[in-house]
Write a structure and sequence with these properties.
- The chain is mainly beta.
- It is built from 1 helix and 6 strands; from the N terminus they run E-E-E-E-H-E-E.
- The chain has one helix at 69-76; strands at 4-7, 25-39, 44-48, 55-63, 93-96, 102-103.
- Strands 1, 2, 3, 4, 5 and 6 form a 6-stranded antiparallel β-sheet that branches.
- It is globular, with a radius of gyration of 13 Å.
- The chain starts with a strand and ends with a strand.
Length: 104
């Protein structure tokens, strides 16, 4: 598992669910990933894209340990062992505002 997490939407600093990350995932930088957001009504969905013009703005976080992701999975309804999870977690290349791209 990557030690980095890319977040967008309510998990970003100052948004409604940002407190979930305060102890378990240190803010590193504003960042972006190559992808598209889709409006699903109550929430957006990020999908990786092959088009370099498709960019999603978000934040790069560094996870405190391997258990830190559990809180986020619970919030997002991501159960990799369950049938048809609402969200999935995938490795993507993330571009911080400063520094080299990282896998998150």
């Amino acid at each position: 598992m990557s030690r980095y997490l890319f977040v967008y939407g309510t998990l970003m600093n100052g948004m409604g669910a940002s407190a979930l990350l305060s102890a378990s995932a240190r803010f590193v930088s504003r960042a972006s990933m190559q992808g598209r957001l889709y409006d699903l009504g109550a929430y957006p969905a990020a999908v990786a894209s092959g088009n370099p013009d498709d960019t999603i703005a978000g934040e790069l976080r560094e996870l405190a340990d391997d258990d830190a992701i559990r809180t986020i999975d619970e919030y997002e309804g991501c159960d990799p062992t369950g049938p048809g999870p609402l969200f999935t977690r995938e490795a993507v290349n993330v571009r911080p505002t400063e520094g080299e791209p990282v896998a998150a």
